[in-house]
Amino acid sequence: MKFMIIENDLELVQKYDYIGVDRIFIDLEILGKKERQGHLDTVISNHSIEDIKNIKPYLKNSKLLVRINPINKNSKLEIDNCIEFGADILMLPMFKTKKEVETFISYDTYTAYSIFAVLSGCKSIVVPDDGISKEQWYPNEKDRYGIAYGFSEDEANIAYSTSHLVEEHIKKEEIIIKTERKVAYNSESAVLFSLFSATNLTSEVLIPRVATDFNIAPKFLKLPSKAIPEGPKKTATTLFEINPNTKVTPIEKEFRVNTLSNVFSLRIFNVATF
Hints:
TIM Barrel, 4-stranded parallel beta sheet, 11 helices
C-alpha cells in the first residue's frame, strides 16, 4: 500500500516526507473541474507548476506525484515543465470514456512505446513536431504502420488499416538487424585476427568491440610461443646525485708522501728509458 497526500505547503510537506508518506501529490488538474465538481463537496486545488520546483529539492524519502490537465493544446509544454522541474510520477488526467483511455498519445515522435501500444491493441497517435511532415518523420511507409501522425480522421483510418501489419514488419526488421550484426561481427573478426603476427607476438593497439566476445585463455593459446615482442618497452630513468656525500678515509701523512715520490720516480724512469 502506498500513502499519498495532496499538499503544496512546504513546511507540511517536509513533515510528511520525514514520517514516511510515500508520495507528495501536486494537483494541477483544473480544466473542466469546476464544471464537473462545482456542485459537489470536493476539493479543487489551487496548486501551480511552480510548486514542483519549490518542493522537489526538499524531498528525501517521498516521491513527487503530479496530476496534469486533460490533453489539450498546451499539454506538451505542461508535461515537459513537470519533468524538468522534478516530477517523479505523472498521473493521467481525468477521463470519462473508454475511448479516451484506449488511445495512446505520444509527444515523443520516436519512442518505441508508440509501437508497443499498437501491439497491445491500443490506438497510437504521435503528436507531430512543428514543421516536420509525415514523410520527413519516417520516409519508409512501413515504419509508420499502425501509428497516426496527428489527430485527423484520415490518419486514424490509415493507422487502423495498417495496424495488423506491424508485428510482421517488426519481425522482418529484426531478421535484417541480426544479419547486419553477423556481417559486422565477421568483418571485425577478420580485422582482429590480422592484428596478430605469425612470427612476432603483438597485442591489439585498438581492441575492436568483437574482442569482448572471445574467451581470453583460448585466444592466447593460439599465439606463437617463441615470439619476440617488438614493444612496448619500458624506459629506465637515470638519477644523478646533486650533492654527493663524499666519504674521506684518513691516511698517514708519510704514506701520502711516499706515494707521491714513487709516482714521480716512475714517471722520470719511464722518460729516461724512452
